[in-house]
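Example 3.2
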Amino acid sequence: MPQLVTIKVNRPDRRPLRLWVPVLPVALLLFPVVVLVVLAAIVACLVFRIGVVRALGAGWRVIAALPGARFDIEQGRLAVLVAIR
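Structure, written as tokens:
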């Protein structure tokens, strides 16, 4: 599971902005929302006749594969780098 998300924003004519976001405290704050999303996913799986266990397992594998991912987004002179560790 990811431990830290680093966000770096390169702004034109200013110093770069860096944010370090620890995942566990944010996950604990968003836990009630996560429970509702999981329940909605279970209902959607039942409606569309998808294996619930397989779908939740696939979702967990995607989350577990996130550490080491980097996302670079550039729009004009603004650049955003998101690194998940």
